[in-house]
From TrEMBL:
PANTHER family: MANNOSYL-D-GLYCERATE TRANSPORT/METABOLISM SYSTEM REPRESSOR MNGR-RELATED, MANNOSYL-D-GLYCERATE TRANSPORT_METABOLISM SYSTEM REPRESSOR MNGR-RELATED. One of its GO terms (biological process) is negative regulation of DNA-templated transcription. Residues 14-81 form the HTH gntR-type domain. It comes from Cryobacterium arcticum. Signal peptide: none annotated. Keywords: DNA-binding, Transcription, Transcription regulation. This is GntR family transcriptional regulator.
């Protein structure tokens, strides 16, 4: 088969399972399936157009991740939803009324070359504050922030409606820019204990530099989220006409 031709619709068993898993995750993430809702295999086969074997393998994978529970007589039900976090905020779009933030560490630490460069500071010591995020009493994230010691972090700030409001309340200047990088890694023992997951579990790591309107980098942060329970929704990017290469050039 030529390289530029798609594979057949049926595909291999592995491809079918991957497709089923991806589409089920989308259904859960988008809210098409709610917590405690039963996932009926026959319905999924008809709606997704995928074989029963692939559906079962995908559901088993979700079960191993703790996303669904499978019982022989009661079937498969959704245990928890995927928490959707804006890339430029730390509070979820659809948090439950029981979403809470607890400060778990607050101290002074020695500056490292990386922290000094990110904060553009020559100070030998910086402040460190750590928070743990809970949704329905379940830990869903841990955030560590480095900042200049001249600022004091309030013991409670989750009453602020957004990260921008909390930032301005602490640093006295509006938040102007967030430089973000999202990576994947294995969870360290200390963070794993806080999140209630095994050491080495996959986590999403969001590294951010928060800059105020005076162009001062005020915070350098790392946030850790269990990879199976949190997602960062896509944003729409429009490509200007002048940046598009002519189709004829791509075919040349």
């Amino acid at each position: 088969m030529p390289d530029d031709q798609p594979a057949t619709a049926t595909g291999t068993s592995t491809n079918q399972t991957r497709r089923a898993y991806d589409l089920l995750r989308v259904m859960i993430r988008s809210g098409d399936v709610v917590v405690d809702q039963k996932l009926v295999e026959d319905t999924l086969i008809r709606s997704l157009g995928i074989t029963r074997t692939a559906i079962r393998e995908a559901l088993q994978q979700l079960s191993e991740e703790g996303m669904v529970s499978r019982q022989r007589r009661s079937g498969t039900r959704l245990n928890r939803a995927v928490l959707q976090l804006p890339i430029d905020d730390i509070l979820p779009w659809k948090a439950s009324t029981r979403f809470s933030v607890i400060r778990t560490d607050y101290r002074t630490v020695q500056t490292t070359p990386t922290v000094a460069a990110k904060l553009q500071t020559t100070e030998d010591y910086v402040g460190l504050v750590e928070h743990c995020f809970f949704d329905d009493a379940v830990a869903v994230g841990v955030r560590i922030a480095y900042f200049r010691r001249s600022y004091a972090q309030p013991p409670v700030w989750q009453s602020c409606p957004s990260l921008a409001d909390a930032f301005e309340a602490v640093y006295g200047s509006p938040l102007a820019e967030i430089r973000s990088v999202v990576d994947a890694g294995a969870c360290d023992p200390a963070t794993a204990r806080m999140l209630g997951i095994p050491t080495g579990s996959p986590v999403l790591v969001r590294e951010q530099v928060l800059v105020d309107r005076r162009d001062i980098a005020q915070e350098y942060t790392f946030s850790y989220y269990p990879a199976g329970t949190v997602s960062f929704p896509m944003t729409t990017v429009k490509v200007a006409e002048e940046t598009r290469a002519p189709l004829s050039a791509l075919r040349a």
